[in-house]
Amino acid sequence: MRGLERYVGVVLESKYHLERLLGQGGMGAVYLATHLGTERFVALKLIAPDFMRNDEFVERFKREARAAGRLRHPNVVDVTDFGFAQTGSDRLAYLVMEYLDGCTLGDVLVEERRLPLEWVVDILEQVGSAVHEAHQQGIVHRDLKPDNIFLIQRDDDPHFPVVLDLAPLAHAATEEQNEDEGKDSLAHPSFSFWRILAISTGSVMVAA
Questions:
Q1: Which segments of the chain belong to CATH 1.10.510.10?
Q2: Domain 103-206 carries which CATH code?
Q3: CB atoms within 10 A of CB 105
Q4: Per-position DSSP letters for 14-66, written without gaps between them
Q5: Which of 107, 143, 155, 165 is catalytic?
Q6: Whether residue 143 lies in the annotated active site
Q7: pLDDT digits (tens, 9 = 90+) for 85-104
Q8: Residue intervals in the chain for CATH 3.30.200.20
Q9: Using the 8-state DSSP alphabet, how is residue 73 labeled?
Q10: End-to-end CA distance of the chain
Q11: pTM of the model
Q12: Residue 142 phi, psi (nearest 5)
């Protein structure tokens, strides 16, 4: 999505200074930002202005951001704030998360397609625990893939996995919504992370 780099340097709601662009996606962009009150770095996801014209989307964003903010698990990125800001003529929605220093599982797989079995089993167990906790709270991850699994150093674990993008790609499930979204396997609670991985003898290779 073009033009989102123009927000670098902007201060949102007198709280968050956007330092630099970290990446862009279909819904907007993620920035390294500074929380001015604490002077700590955060990751701030900015939703593109085009989406803000849809009232249904705005309400869904609020619902899903609150749901993600309630989720607490060591293997899920911590959502700390969300809100709306006016910048010039643009109305923006934003989601604030803890800033993680590391790389994605997708980055690792660009360099090395095959990973040690014990390493992948460890990642699977922790990611599975995170997704299970999300499902217990009625939250379904719609885009679980290696690029949304971030690996950081935590204590003595150099490859500690943290699941990203539970919101706004998260979904506060209801009986009616599950019925509709069951048509999409990635949006349904029965989706298994095992579909991402093809296990081979002595090692694990992530399927393309």
A1: 103-206
A2: 1.10.510.10
A3: 21
A4: TTEEEEEEEEE-SSEEEEEEEETTTTEEEEEEEE-GGGGG-HHHHHHHHHHHH
A5: 143
A6: yes
A7: 998 888 899 999 999 999 99
A8: 4-98
A9: -
A10: 24
A11: 0.77
A12: -95, -5
Distance of CA 202 to the CA centre of its chain: 31
Q: Where are the beta strands (DSSP E) in the chain?
A: 11-12, 16-24, 28-35, 40-47, 79-87, 90-98, 102-104, 114-116, 149-154, 157-163, 197-200, 203-206
CA-based nearest residue to 5, from 39, 41, 40, 32 = 32
The model's pLDDT over 40-97, given as tens digits with 9 standing for 90+, comes to 999 999 988 888 888 888 888 888 888 888 899 999 999 999 999 998 888 899 999 9
Structure-block tokens of residue 48: 């593109």
**How many Å separate Cα 104 from the centre of its chain?**
11
Q: Answer yes or no: CATH 3.30.200.20 is held by domain 4-98.
A: yes
